[in-house]
Amino acid sequence: MWVRSDRPARMVVQTAATESFRNARSWHGPVIGPDTDFTGVTSLHGLPSGEQIHYRVLLSDPDDPRRTGEPVSGTFRTAPTGRRTDLRFHWSGDLAGQGWGINPDRGGYRIYEDMRRRNPDFFLCSGDNIYADNPIPERVTLPDGRIWRNVTTEEKSKVAETLAEFRGAFRYNLLDDNLRRFNAQVPTITQWDDHEVHNNWYPGQLLDDDRYTEKDADVLSARSLRAFGEYFPIRTLRPDRGGRVYRVLRHGPLLDVFVLDMRRYRNANSPGRQTDDPQGILGAEQLRWLKRELSRSRAVWKVIASDMPLGLVVPDGKTNFEAVAQGDPGTPLGRELQLAELLRHIKHDRVTGTVWLTTDVHYTAAQHYAPERAAFKDFEPFWEFVSGPLNAGGFQALKLDGTFGPDQPFLKAPDRANTSPAESPQYFGEVDIDGGSGELTVRLRQEGGQVLFSKVLQPGRVGQ
What we know:
Layout: E1 2-4, E2 9-16, E3 25-32, E4 39-41, E5 52-61, E6 64-68, E7 72-77, E8 87-92, H1 110-117, E9 122-125, E10 139-141, E11 147-149, H2 163-173, H3 177-185, E12 188-190, H4 217-231, E13 247-250, E14 255-259, H5 284-296, E15 301-305, E16 315-316, E17 320-321, H6 336-348, E18 354-358, E19 364-369, E20 382-386, E21 406-412, E22 427-433, E23 440-446, E24 451-457
Parallel strand pairs: 8-9, 9-12, 14-15, 15-18, 18-20
Antiparallel strand pairs: 1-4, 2-3, 2-5, 5-6, 5-7, 8-22, 10-11, 13-14, 16-17, 19-20, 19-21, 22-23, 23-24
């Protein structure tokens, strides 16, 4: 459970089976203060599985626990222990990008209300929770002459460089009523990507950006990661858990979610033509971890939450590439070598039920990879689904790289760069897993809830 106060306070959490809070249990959390930007986290243990839990959070005076603020209440569902329970979750990413912030004329981040009404068990945010490198202006004139208005703050008036500015960027999104209402009902699994720091950053980079006085990406990323950990309760970010974003979350017997970090361990963006690349985009240690945990998983479905797409060619300037693919449809080179090693492992270790979910490119698509179409053939077929942004500019579709044989049965993208949320739909994906049959259904939806594409996958298969 996460909370933010406006002053030093003791965090207290109460949970119960009903709204009346009869027979409530209490957890006394930390005293929160300026060292964490007045944010705090309390872990709850021993809750019943597969149940709707009512909670309320109280903030009390550290010197007088009888003095408390108004309680903040909400609900969540705990993970089931039995396989017969149906499961639903959503995923998307990219929030307040390209200067498109909270627009009160549109009702703010409306897509969060669309998702909340569908009552998912949890939400997977695939990264770019903030755009630290994109200030939020008061107004933007659209191509048709309309005016886009933004809620603004001091911290979002410039690029984020200091810890205070990164914290302010995370606070900005919480000004939206839809997002706060969503957070009160739906737990979130959070990963990060580049815009938590700077567009297309990688470790060791020195920024070529005149807006910055601090140009060392490692310094900026350390500040951002601290603020990220303060605003999202990620247990593995604690020093005693390795201080890492990548992790696996087990949601009962039907589902394990493997959350990747394709940012913090990557090598420098390059043309991607190396014939040997042990660091790649994941780093050697994370790749070993992912192979090991996939093989250990006994869940029916293994969702791999990737903050970048696999087969889409994402450029970084004129000659370098940002994601895995680099446009050469031949045998794997550069970062593709790590993906080939992973896909080979999944095939030969008979890992069933893998599905890849991502966001990043600011449109929505479904991509199927198959060895009969590929230059690299030692893998089983699999699906990758793309959905986003939540509230950012829309961009044109990118080319597919043929190395792993992708086919694209569905695509929806704008025809020009940086279309505003007022001009181009925002997107989220939905996954339903049937507790009886084990079938997994993916639906790509747009703002308002309309289904654009759906695909049903069968359980127990190495490839689909």
